[in-house]
Amino acid sequence: MNYLAKSDNKIFEIPTIKIRPNKTQPRKIFDEEQLRDLANSISENGILQPLTVRKVSQSEYEIIAGERRLRASVMAGYSKVPCIIVKCNDRESAMLALIENLQRCDLGIFEEARGISRLIRRYGITQEQAAKKLGKSQSTIANKLRLLNLTYDEQDWIIQAGLSERHARALLRIYDVELRREALSKIIAYNLNVTQSEEMIEKLLFDSSAPEPEKPKKGAQRILIRDVRIFINTINKAVSTMKQAGIDAVCKHKDSGEYIEYTVRIPKTQTERSA
């Protein structure tokens, strides 16, 4: 990417009517009150940070960074805004716009997740590469992408209720859609915080009746149990029993999104004494 200006960071005054939004902008909701506050600040102090744009024709520019500033400037009555012009192609412009917005902390949780998903799919990069570009860990990227497993209705309820990303991630423990909606309804109705939500979800998961195992075919020996929560509960009870017996067993679990990994560590000296 190169600056069109002869000197680096040269600023141009460009008419707002000649600037168009970037189609890859992940932000779809612009809070009107926040825009008015920004417009008032711009009226009082001016535009402190220039927009970044690229030239797409003789009379048109596309925003790479600064759509909120553009909207607020128009609200404040500005007909021109200060811009830095960069030279880049469609692919570079789209990627830069996505990355610039994803690096901001005021995107909605699902806007951010969809933006990351779009970045990965559109440009054929891995989660690890996306994490490096965005300055985040790969596990953070994976957790954010998992939020898209919630239905659009659930996402909308979460946004409207002002729930956090941790609320949304807690709900992902429930795979059954009807049960998950029941949990979400309770969280909203009773205004539960994250800890209360996690406790309620835990109770829902273990209180809900497990599906009936499939009847094995004649001569089959395998027992079919589809609900892994039964096995997880068994692991937890086994570790608890060992602790009650004086064995310093430690159980750790990790949810990677695709699978749940359990590690049980038992001191070898204690196992030898027990033997």
Write up what this structure looks like.
- This protein is of the alpha/beta class.
- It contains 12 helices and 8 strands.
- The strands form 2 sheets. Strands 1, 2, 3, 4, 5 and 6 form a 6-stranded mixed beta sheet that branches.
- β4 and β5 form a beta hairpin.
- α8 packs parallel to α10.
- It is elongated, with a radius of gyration of 26 Å.
- The N terminus is likely disordered.
Kindly summarize this structure in a few lines.
The protein has 275 residues and is α/β, with parallel strands linked by helices.
Number of helices: 12
* Structural shape: elongated
Instruction: Let me know the average pLDDT.
Output: 80
Q: What's the story with the biggest beta sheet?
A: 6 strands, mixed
Element order: H for helix, E for strand: EEEHEEHEHHHHHHHHHEEH
- First and last CA, distance: 69 Å
Helical/strand content category: alpha/beta
**Roughly what percent helix?**
40-55%
Share of β-strand residues: 5-15%
Uncertain residue ranges: 1-7, 220-226
Q: What does the radius of gyration come to?
A: 26 Å
Number of strands: 8
Topology:
Elements: E1 2-3, E2 12-15, E3 19-20, H1 32-45, E4 51-57, E5 60-65, H2 67-75, E6 80-87, H3 90-102, H4 109-123, H5 127-134, H6 138-146, H7 152-161, H8 165-171, H9 177-189, H10 194-207, H11 229-244, E7 250-255, E8 260-265, H12 268-274
Parallel strand pairs: 3-5, 4-6
Antiparallel strand pairs: 1-6, 2-6, 4-5, 7-8
Helix pairs in contact: 1-2, 3-4, 4-6, 5-6, 8-10
